[in-house]
Write a structure and sequence with these properties.
Rossmann fold; 45% helix; 23 helices; Arc Repressor Mutant, subunit A; 3 domains; 5-stranded parallel beta sheet; alpha/beta
Length: 472
């Protein structure tokens, strides 16, 4: 399988690996984001001790890692078992000291939370071995985990035994829309955007979409068939993170259907506000939910909204959850054609806005859209002149020279025209004192001749097609 993306992360890993002395890297990231794939790529060509933890309550991790350690350092002792984690770590120390002096030792412990959960003493023992011995060695230790809460509390928290020994940290993020498109290079630009909307840029989900297989065929097979990988994926992920998923399921469902503030979510789910707030914090930690604060209005808490950060969750709870009965009676395709396909472009609205914001940030850094691209976001607030709520889909600001780029996004059949441009120009006053230097219209279906003519005459107007978005 072709390795896609992660160039920056690989450069960071290689730079840390080349440093002399002891280094400890913490690699975090939600499940399915590609941590193990990245580490496997990084370990290629290196003499790495690589062990992946097992979810077990007994000594299985000690036994299995012991085998991996013996296989790595001394094949002739492959039948010996360690009595304790202290003995295993001491053996690694002894074996590392015998290694070639100028060779970097590389130890990768993937799914480390599983190991530490089955052996609560492991954190303290590892800290002791680092303090006494490994700080003297030319060794790189990588601790990787999907459990965000565990990594924050037990590894990165100030009271944790390993706190302070970390020299670097990578929080692995989903791919952006351009990198996601590399998985399906032959798809149309609209199909590439849909793939991004359905997967949220999560590598494991992107791998399910084959360039030679029509998009709709994959969607039907993965979401609307009981044998599909994504049919039960949200429930499986929630069960991995939470003991009782009923509260979290209800909250995610409420957000998927437009209930975006805590009071609304509590009212819809029937749970009290304090319990909902606590659950939302946990959902934020695992990367499913995000608290969205409007750019330039971040201090106004009343404007905060909770949105589903994970595109797959947003699609599943919007469409799949309502069709389970039909899917389980083998009517998934009929349900998709009647209740899903007609609403896909509407579903894509928020995702398309995100794509356009990524475009503005990318182009802003390159200096191609009229400002330096310090920050991008969506503006929400009140229009004091019209005395009504208002929003701006895309706002890209440059803090240094106090200028902004604003944009309107249309993922629909109709072309965008002068009405959209006039509305965008009118909203420019809402982000004062930033001076708007560029007005951008983003459209799936192109633009009217009138607005195209206006853009020809006025350099402040930019018309961005799907082809331009994916030009890179």
């Amino acid at each position: 399988m072709r390795f896609i993306g992660r160039e920056e992360e690989l450069r960071t890993l290689e730079a840390i690996y080349r440093r002399d002395g002891f280094q400890m890297l913490i690699l975090c990231g939600r499940r399915r984001v590609g941590k193990t794939t990245l580490l496997n790529r990084f370990a290629e060509g290196k003499n790495a001790l690589f062990y992946t933890g097992i979810e077990s309550k007994d000594d299985e991790n000690l036994r299995e890692m012991g085998r991996a350690v013996f296989a790595h350092y001394s094949l002739e002792n492959a039948g010996i078992n360690f009595r304790s984690w202290g003995d295993l770590l001491a053996y690694i120390t002894s074996a590392s000291k015998r290694s070639v002096a100028d060779r970097k030792e590389l130890i990768i412990l993937d799914e480390y939370p599983f190991m530490a959960d089955s052996a609560p003493e492991l954190n303290a023992l590892l800290q002791r071995e680092i303090d006494r011995e490994w700080l003297k060695l030319n060794l790189m230790l990588v601790l990787c985990g999907s459990s965000a809460a565990f990594m924050e509390d037990a590894v990165l928290g100030e009271g944790a035994p390993l706190y302070g020994w970390r020299t670097s940290r990578i929080n692995l993020q989903p791919f952006d829309y351009l990198t996601s498109a590399e998985f399906v290079p032959s798809y149309t630009e609209e199909e590439k955007a849909l793939v991004y909307g359905l997967t949220g840029g999560i590598p494991r989900y992107l791998c399910l979409f084959e360039d030679a297989v029509p998009l709709e065929e994959t969607v039907l097979a993965q979401f609307f068939d009981m044998s599909g990988f994504l049919y039960e994926e949200p429930k499986n992920l929630l069960r991995r993170e939470f003991r009782d998923i009923s509260l979290y399921y209800a909250i995610i469902s409420a957000i998927a259907f437009g209930h975006v503030q805590i009071s609304e979510i509590a009212g819809k789910t029937g749970f009290d506000t304090a319990k909902v707030a606590q659950a939302l914090r946990k959902l934020e930690t695992v990367g499913i939910v995000r608290k969205d604060s409007p750019i330039l209005n971040e201090r106004n808490r009343k404007l905060n909204q909770y949105v589903l950060q994970d595109g797959m969750f947003r699609f599943w709870f919007r469409f799949v959850s309502r069709g389970i009965g039909q899917i389980e009676r083998n009517h998934g395709e009929a349900y998709y054609r009647a209740a899903v396909r007609p609403f896909l472009r509407e579903f894509m609205g928020p995702c398309f806005e995100q794509i356009c914001r990524e475009y503005v940030m990318h182009r802003g850094v390159a200096g191609d859209v009229g400002n330096g691209g310090t920050r991008t976001g969506k503006w929400r607030g009140g229009d004091p002149l019209k005395r009504c709520p208002a929003d701006i889909d895309v706002v890209g600001i440059s803090e240094t020279d106090r200028v902004a780029v604003i944009g309107e996004c249309k993922f629909r059949d109709e072309t965008a025209g002068m009405a959209e441009l006039a509305a965008l120009r009118d909203r420019a006053r809402l982000i004062a004192p930033y001076a708007v230097v560029r007005y951008l219209l983003f459209s799936l279906s192109g633009f009217t001749s009138g607005v195209a003519a206006a853009a020809e005459k006025d350099p402040e107007i930019g018309l961005v097609t799907m082809e331009e978005l994916y030009r890179g």
